Records
---
Amino acid sequence: MDVNELISKLQQEFEDVPAGTLKPETKLSDIPDWSSMHALIIIALADIEYGVTIKGEELRKAQSIQELYNMIITKQSNPS
């Protein structure tokens, strides 16, 4: 997996976000109409697609899509 694959999956899940809007440097809070529903989608996506559990407080620490990607990769490499 690379960050572009994650972006592609997020783009599919966030139907209300225009195509091409998301980039690695995109701040999660800057995603149009960002809400707690988006956070839940990310948590579910990480679990289903990547076998990683992300808690709400962990997600709040990820500022950008790149940081979210780094978190997922780290968790895959170091399961707890």
Note: The two ends are 20 Å apart (CA to CA).
---
Amino acid sequence: MAEDVIDSVDRLNADCKSAVLDRAALEAAILAKGAAFHEAISTGHEYVFADVPVFITSTQLRKMYEVISAVEQVVKLPGWQAASVEELQKAKGAFFGYDFHLDEHGAHLIEINTNAGGAFLNELLIASQKDVDLPGKAVAIEKLERSIPEMFRNEWRLERGSAPFKTIAIADEQPEKQYLYPEFLLARSMLERDGIEVYIADPAAFKAREDGFYFGNEIIDLVYNRLTDFSLQRHPALLKAYTSGQVVLTPSPAHHARYADKSNLARLTDAEYLRSLGASEEDIATLQVGVPHTSLVQKSTEETMWQQRKELFFKPNSGYGGKGAYRGGNVTKRVFAEIMQGDYVAQKMAQPGERAVCVQGAEPVMLKYDVRCYVYDGKIQLVAARLYRGQTTNFRTPGGGFALVRVVE
């Protein structure tokens, strides 16, 4: 039966015509979100939504659950936390992204992101296709549109108890110029329907005063952090408000240090280190299989890494979105020498899956995909894929973008 399911999934992913996105249903859902969102998503976002769903097996989904659970258990260990940074808040951190490459052997965690974009866009995508006849089923918790606001309310309760919760600021540098600005509009609309005032803010406009943390004339209770300045060194007002407890920040620098700094991947694949922390043998075994072996880049291993480079992917510890990342087989000696000087990790290659796409009726082309699990407090909220061509996801590939994930039993 398992082999039959794998064969079925492989056939579906290899056929660009048998199961395609219902663009009319998606367009109707976009229009229903209002003129501002429609205009934003229609300008320069031709490849934000992929033409086809990605199909996975229930076994692959279970393997992703197992890896996420093992990571969550390890990062709770006291020694792990001491090795990252002091936790200044009780908040769990909104919308972590666990990114996987899948194959016939299961799921391979390539990185964790604590400012994972796309959740609101994928909620819209999932909702738009709910009545479309497609193989398998989508992966999302029930009543997602209600559970997302509840996540932010829970972040507030963890910090402030029963105090009134009135305002959220979605923070990013020059937010209107960000590629995912349209989802900020979706987030604002969803949260405002839940009775919360929402502002989309450049953190340069924040002001800390004696009576509160302000955006313009409005006191901000909670900041939904979408910045890629993970330590907030470029944003002193927000950093001070966070460290002083003046505002609830989610996700925070502590969340990034604990989960998303790429050096954590090396710790997650070091069995002896995990044993020294008191990790269970079951979790260690899961991580050994589910996370491609990762090492810190060091001058002492330069010669060995050069010889093995074709099997490695180099990532900056504080990187995001594939910036500064290099496939080892493509690096020149000059770039390799620069990598050896920086804060990088070397991760064993885990090949992405492939999905056939017929762009505008042309002959099928194979695009790569990765699968992102959006996670809150260790629980998967929804699962989506990203289709792309090239080294990393880019939203510049015809037929590519965020893709619906369907699990075939």
Note: Residues 118 and 183 are 7 Å apart (CA to CA).
---
Amino acid sequence: MTAGAPVSRLDTLGRGRLASTFVELCRIESPSRHERACAERVRSELAALALEVEEDDAGAHTGSDCGNLLARIPAHPQAGTAPSGRSVMLCAHLDTVPLGAPVEPVLVDGGWENAGEGILGADNKAAVAVLLTLARHITAHGAPVDVELLFTVAEEISLAGSLAFDASRLRSDFGFVFDHATPIGEVIVSSPTHFRIDARLRGAAAHAGIQPEQGRSAILAASRAIASMRLGRLDAQTTANIGTVAGGSAINVVPETCVLSGEVRSLVPEAAERVVAEMVDRVHEAANLPDCDCDVDISVQRTFAGYNLSTADEPVRVAFAALSECGYRPEAVRSGGGSDANALIAQGFPTVNLANGTERPHEPGERVSVAALEGMFDVALALLGHAAAPVAGAAR
């Protein structure tokens, strides 16, 4: 993905502080809806730089113990140059998926990993560490644009935090999110529309050994429904999945209830809607089978909308220019994943999601290389320079 051998703009002290900040953040457990401790660490770092931090009421909407944090750093360009009058937003999320075990980051072959069995939390602590390091850098050395730093909560729960954030509070021309676990250089120009499906099936309980004929198994109905669904990658744009199934009370009781939850994603919204309708039909059909005969309650929610960006859009062109300057080969990519960019774009705020170089997210083997951490910082800094003036040829 690199066009050359990128050399970090951070000095030795800066590289050390970036690494130590990342390690400290990873040690702070912040699974979705429990981000307060991590948020307070971020707040204290920014307060030490004399930056005011605003917290919104997203916690009340998401069930989190914390809201989204927003801080602003005014432009302070080098001597002899005037402020550009422009502003750029940079975003990272504070939460992680459940860790599974305590985190103790260790360096292995030039990359950070968890010494234990749980995930590392580089998604998205790597980006949080980069933004804090950037804040220290530009408060000391200046920047040609105003900078807004947004730290969201509950991103791992279908973008709940950013969906609850009021994007009209932002003063920036556009923004960037660092939340795609692929090599630095990828620019996400397309992201899917996402639907959540929850179904509760209700049959009748009975003793499984004495009178099973009088029972109606909700688990049997659910299994018939799932077996009849098209799941996995359905085509180049669309995926479907049943992620959780729960039901029953004991091995000697015909299960009266079963609950299943799943999702559908597609870069083509109409395709997602068709697959959702098909999955709902499969649940009803299975529930109505003679040997199942269950009642069904189904809810469908469009959790976030997809988007398609043009390489002519100014923030995309700024991203390409910044990546090229830092020695990376930019590549426009269509992704099956969602990010806070989806929620912000849906509110009309132009946002681009950039690859952050992390590897194997949500897995015990999650890691991020030292080079990727430093490269992410370099790209973030370069974004500010290229955003200072409209990029030639960009659509406004």
Note: The CA atoms of residues 206 and 212 lie 6 Å apart.
---
Amino acid sequence: MLAAQTIKNKHSDVFTFIGGDLARRATSSRAIEDACFDSLVYVSCPKQLAEVMGRNPAIVIVNAKIVGALAGLSDTDTCCFSVRNISMGMALLLKYFDEKRLRFTQWGERHPTAIVHPDAELGAGVYLGPYCVIGAHASVGEGCLIGAHVVVENKARIGARSILHPHVFLGSSCEIGQDCEIHPHTTIGSDGFGYAVDADGKPRKISHLGNVKIGNDVEIGGNCAIDRATLASTHIRSGTKIDNICHIAHNCDLGENGFYTAGFMMGGSTTIGRGFLTGGNSVVTAHVKIADNVTLQGRSSVTNDILESGAYGGYPLQPLKEAMKTAVSLAQLNDIRKNLHRIMKHLRLTSRCTEEESAAPFER
């Protein structure tokens, strides 16, 4: 539940009170077409305002650019606020309606089927779901939520208030910082893909003795794989957000506050700077370095170092503006080829013509 007065008191640096009854309370946040008396609703389009206000919701958050459209609407006790950035408004207020914690706490603090090694350390307020396993000398910080069938191996560490959804695997000696969230079926600390090949062609596995270190406030989506380092650490620095179905190879180092969209794959021993942003299905090869504040277009491939900040795209990789021109040209490639064939035929040239033939005078 969220009271309008709470927004005014706690978030006045982001929301501007416009008018209405500050005693109104919202018990849910709904889409415009589903809004009702006890709803919180976000509005970014003037055309939606009349419909929303006619439903008399408890609280309306309006994009600051369309505040003027409120004038002339029928009187209502709906409490109205403006915000410059609707997305930031959602980030601050939707958490009041998030019942995610109930998924973990419905069983009590420790489900009877949870297995905790006697040498493991659990902080205050840790909730353990059905069939989870906490290994020897593992440490789980206060307020953590551990879902069903999660495996935390020996000597692994989890910082305070982090959430591990069902079926997450955290390998031995790996570390997760505070306020992180790891979604279902993600593996942290599996062996890297490292082999030596005998003279007879037989591959021999290289043992991976390192770990994975994840900073604070990191979120990792479902079905991701993050490999442990060979000897040192694979790093996911603080503030990083990784989407579903991504692979981070061994010995990599991902800088702070990066955004890795679904399908991102990377080779081992690569370093990516701070503020990285990539579109879906991008690939970064092994043993390269990428500067801070680099943006990749979706489906891009990086095969060499990127030493300067900026936007890039395509394969081979180019500055984004050039990559977009190349993409347009590729779409016209068949027409270009046909036109070139016509020109060469008109000039009585072939692809194997001699220099003398190509220099001969034009004849109709």
Note: Residues 267 and 286 are 4 Å apart (CA to CA).
